[in-house]
Amino acid sequence: MAKAPVQKFADHISRVFVPLVILLSMVTWLAWFVAGRLHSYPQSWIPRFMDSFQLALQFGISVMVIACPCALGLATPTAVMVATGVGASHGVLIKGGQALESAQKVDCIVFDKTGTLTIGKPVVVDTRLLKNMVLREFYDYAAAAEVNSEHPLAKAIVEHAKKLRPEGNHMWPEAREFISVTGQGVKAEVSGKSVIVGNKGLMLSSGIGIPLEASEILVEEEGKARTGIIVAVDREVAGVISVSDPTKPNALQVISYLKSMNVESIMVTGDNWGTANAIGREVGIEKIIAEAKPEQKAERVKELQLSGRTVAMVGDGINDSPALVSADVGLAIGAGTDVAIEAADIVLMKSNLEDVVTAIDLSRKAFFRIRMNYVWALGYNVVGIPIAAGVLFPSTGFRLPPWVAGAAMAASSVSVVCWSLLLRYYKAPKIAGTAKEIGITTL
Question: Which residues belong to the active site?
Fold first, then answer.
């Protein structure tokens, strides 16, 4: 588990704290001892059954005992330990203190579209054939090419193709020379024919002309927040498959709540601009980046970081991995790919978009407690050490016996631990109805 960078502050202080306290203890004893020998204070100050040496020794020991580097050392790890445990109980797996510290600074979140803002289980809703071909044959070519792809849209095509075949007969023609073009589609040779399944960009880069009818279909589907997938057989567009992936029911409320937390939301997707804009309107995201390849997603994240933003990336697929790694905090949807989960700093195990809010809110609450722990630990030592050294003794006659100093030292550590343990009672924000409260309406 990665250590929180703020822990370096405590480590640095602790390195010099112990030798400094030993030195202060010796100086305290020496100062009172010399003052006693030189009769610099009235003999009446010395308690019964004590001499000046014993009084000086008591002050020196009290300084040694009351000083507490333990509270400083416990300030961060106790809060991090409790916060990660609480996060896990809420379905938010936080991979260490570094992820927790970075999350509390986030002021900009970049969302992937498919599987993150949308349900992630796209289904084929329409098919337009543009070539004299039987529908089942058309899907045999498309499914044979897509069956080796892990992309959700590919899985939707394969599942739809299964419905067109006799029950239990899901053997597709063999696909050779399979090539997956990340963020665009796939290429393969099926039954001796070249098959390309993907977006408009893949067709153009492959030198395949897109007929006017296909372009009109794509524009129409984009307006419906659907994704149009082109299928080309032997370098001719054979048809367009329309795939729909509805937005998650709570997406609008989550984006609204993040706005109330002063966190800007941005959507980045490899999908076309029309579909991306339609989805953006549904969930309340104004800033949209579409038709982005995986490396371009990472570049956008880096651009935001260069502008001074602390960026979190939320995604679920292989295409999101570069951006998840580049972001200050990577949040992976639990139902996503193993690659995305491995690349992320925080995993949302329930695949619930509300857990993005929980992760940010919990990290802020945890670091508030860490800061208070440091304030208490430092304040305790700043006040306690001079009192133990006897600064109040000349004016009030008050001195701190070593056993009391020891009890105070233990109490300071216990208080830090207890303050951190209060995080166990953390409750995730309730965000239902937030959109109405902020004045955002669903289109």
Answer: 112
